Amino acid sequence: xxxxxxxxxxxxxxxxxxxxxxxxxxxxxxxxxxxxxxxxxxxxxxxxxxxxxxxxxxxxxxxxxxxxxxxxxxxxxxxxxxxxxxxxxxxxxxxxxxxxxxxxxxxxxxxxxxxxxxxxxxxxxxxxxxxxxxxxxxxxxxxxxxxxxxxxxxxxxxxxxxxxxxxxxxxxxxxxxxxxxxx
Amino acid sequence: xxxxxxxxxxxxxxxxxxxxxxxxxxxxxxxxxxxxxxxxxxxxxxxxxxxxxxxxxxxxxxxxxxxxxxxxxxxxxxxxxxxxxxxxxxxxxxxxxxxxxxxxxxxxxxxxxxxxxxxxxxxxxxxxxxxxxxxxxxxxxxxxxxxxxxxxxxxxxxxxxxxxxxxxxxxxxxxxxxxxxxxxxxxxxxxxxxxxxxxxxxxxxxxxxxxxxxxxxxxxxxxxxxxxxxxxxxxxxxxxxxxxxxxxxxxxxxxxxxxxxxxxxxxxxxxxxxxxxxxxxxxxxxxxxxxxxxxxxxxxxxxxxxxxxxxxxxxxxxxxxxxxxxxxxxxxxxxxxxxxxxxxxxxxxxxxxxxxxxxxxxxxxxxxxxxxxxxxxxxxxxxxxxxxx
Amino acid sequence: xxxxxxxxxxxxxxxxxxxxxxxxxxxxxxxxxxxxxxxxxxxxxxxxxxxxxxxxxxxxxxxxxxxxxxxxxxxxxxxxxxxxxxxxxxxxxxxxxxxxxxxxxxxxxxxxxxxxxxxxxxxxxxxxxxxxxxxxxxxxxxxxxxxxxxxxxxxxxxxxxxxxxxxxxxxxxxxxxxxxxxxxxxxxxxxxxxxxxxxxxxxxxxxxxxxxxxxxxxxxxxx
Amino acid sequence: xxxxxxxxxxxxxxxxxxxxxxxxxxxxxxxxxxxxxxxxxxxxxxxxxxxxxxxxxxxxxxxxxxxxxxxxxxxxxxxxxxxxxxxxxxxxxxxxxxxxxxxxxxxxxxxxxxxxxxxxxxxxxxxxxxxxxxxxxxxxxxxxxxxxxxxxxxxxxxxxxxxxxxxxxxxxxxxxxxxxxxxxxxxxxxxxxxxxxxxxxxxxxxxxxxxxxxxxxxxxxxxxxxxxxxxxxxxxxxxxxxxxxxxxxxxxxxxxxxxxxxxxxxxxxxxxxxxxxxxxxxxxxxxxxxxxxxxxxxxxxxxxxxxxxxxxxxxxxxxxxxxxxxxxxxxxxxxxxxxxxxxxxxxxxxxxxxxxxxxxxxxxxxxxxxxxxxxxxxxxxxxxxxxxxxxxxxxxxxxxxxxxxxxxxxxxxxxxxxxxxxxxxxxxxx
Lengths: 183, 389, 223, 430
Hints:
The structure holds four protein chains of four kinds. By secondary structure, chain A is an all-alpha fold.
């Protein structure tokens, strides 16, 4: 994995950090689905998200890493915990976590895995051999260009981005209507 | 607890407007929180069991009695004179008022009256004590709402009053200032000067408290429309004192049924409008100023003469019973004394204002937030020594 | 009824002397003879003096439109007296809820100051229950009293004055008087498991204290 | 070795970006120790200042004027029994204070005390800081939940709602400051903390005064939100003493509790540093573009030494004013030694200022420059710290619904409006 070409700083012990982060992500990901205590699961999920943020950093995508931390680890997971804390942990811990449709779940997981593997095998030549050295300082700008467009032109994802924000607005309104009886 | 509250909200107290907070839309578990008896804001050993929906209070139940010392039982085993110091230990921040109520009640039973000089001294000391009590209330109330600093200011100024007490009778808190039939001691040399110094010293200090709180936005938000109680509810629940007056009922025993020398002084009764925590705050602040007015008139007019009335050495009231009440800083403090003709009271019943006022806590905090419970406990100005006796 | 209760209300010196005399008798019976000798001593010395001076003001009959009105309505069940300028009604127990409700509704006694009781163990009807009322519009106080026997219950006035809730609980706690119709009649100042009712004259303080230390501290006596 | 370090002193890039991991590590340690020391000092200052607001003396017994009180406190806390409630979730209970502490300290990796006096000049500095500081709430939530008790739970719920709400207004206020960084020739702004300060230098104005009053409003919003973020009075609802006894750390004691306190004060210093960086020109001395020239540089470089000289003078006066009784002798000596120490530091700083006045390339010159930067930065942060204490002494506590209302209905619309206006004004000007 030590194939990253770097212009400025030379990262230290890159393979170590990669395996460390990947291992942490996998282990904590497994903990998420095996812990019976929902709060423990949520905390494990936070570790997973942070590890993934670290991996983004290693891919020279600091902006995505930062957003990952802010939005997922900092925002969404806090709300998750907020809700989970109010759930009766004692009761939910006693419930069987793996219910009867687990074979279906296993099958779905296997299918997904085989999809990934086949995509990786078949499209091997689509993946770059080595990561292109990104200009770290322009990373944020590039994302902006992708999302909002540049110099008067729409970026490739502008439409999707706007649609997504509209969707979120609808979700917000729905949440307000659901929780408030009279507005 | 639930039963009692249902009873309260149905039929039993139909004329009391007990609004049950609307049921939560999402299914949420009710949270039972035990506030006290060890809690920084319950002013002693009050225990309040709160039923919460999130932060909203659905109902409360007060558990009291942690400070119960059986004062009424003690009275039956002491002579009238021996019992006098015990009353100081009930509302220990207004010991002088307690003593005044008890002494006057026994005097009434004996059918004697304290001489004018004693009456005036009593008024001066009792009003000083009212200010001290209100100062303590203000400091702790502000602390409950999160303002730390007023506590220290009020304690600094309360010190001046306690110094006068100390010079007068040697005690600062449990003063035992009065005797049945008059005063315990003749005023010390310079008593009047000390009191007059205090009269000059204190008004700027009230302004100082008010500068910190009265128009403070957060203070206003925390106290306006918090713990509202109507005058009607106050009367139905027997709530007296500044709480009653803040709800718009202009009733003060010092005016309604004057005792001691109060009929000779000119003062006003402050009245609130909304019956919320802010009005109670304002009423007490004005009361402090009015107390200063009374003290000024009293200390300038202390007549010469004896300080003790014609009371026998052994106090042995004739058979009979009497109820006498005074306006203590917290409300109507009454003594119901039954005499069997012996030297010991057959029965002494204390009608404690804090005890009765505390009953209003429940309807004042229903539907409000946890933080308001603390504010309302503070604004009721309870002293657990008096609630539990 | 009135004839029966009348001598009891303004307690005569003879009637009053008895509880005082009874006390020293009760205390040694419950406590060890050596230790409690002191507390009952003062009443013992006071006792001979008490009947010697039956002087002082005597409760006088009291008449007013209010009294006349209710006396017409209820007859002899009401006895109106005044003592040292304080008026009180002595009412038969059977009239209690009606009279109190009428006092609030018709006579504007809208504020129940206090409810309490007094224990006279030598009497047939051991308890005086006292309601102290006040009228804001009239600026007037009135006491209403009734006599009930030990174990008898009395109607609750919580529906008349909500403030009676805790006050009645305290009376129940201290005297063991039952209030019918009280929403939540339980002890208020003492712990739920408390034995006895302390303000009864026959309640042995020392006995209670000794039992407590024996059970909880494992010592003979805390005195 | 010494030469290596000295070369980094003169380097224009922060240690983390200077291709020397050892130097970065040392820098991290220096900052960690410095922040810990600052927290200890802050502890003493807060107790003393709060006491003086409230007409009392504060700690007076341990050391002269209670100077050793923080040490005594730390010792006491470390020696206290470590209690984990029987019904608590032990692992989470154990981890919770560490989360808060780590989050608070990690923020310091991007805070620039000077153009090269930072652990690293991260490209996404401010974003990183927002993200990491938003993790701090996890410590509070987990602490509240793991205690398995009602008061901490309510405290945790309050704090999570509070921090999530105020983060929004805080973020928008930050964005309006970031917009201002893009008002240059290329039209590209920066998220780098060092870049933000340099942008202020280029534009010749602190962002608090930029587009007056837009910058000021954004700054005030941030200043309010940062109090809420650090759970300080009047927004200290999560630990509202009079309501929730101690809020989320009710069940904590001893060392664990002190970790929470350490985290809280570290977070206070961190958010103050961010405010200073974004709006108050970071490490820059007053009027760096106006009062230029080596003479002015020299005058301003005297300030650190003079400050310490002033502190030493105060300490000496305190020594002289101590009662001349045998009882106070040790305290007198202690205070005199402390004053002498301060005086020595003052002399050292003045000597460096004088020695480095001519040649910026010399070691003394580099030292002087570095001290200057750190001094002005710390001075600005100290003002905020004082404000934190002042607020605490003055204001009552908000109620929860009021807090939420202020957050969502007042701060959020205002910050949105300021953001939009800033963008419009920025476009119009450029």
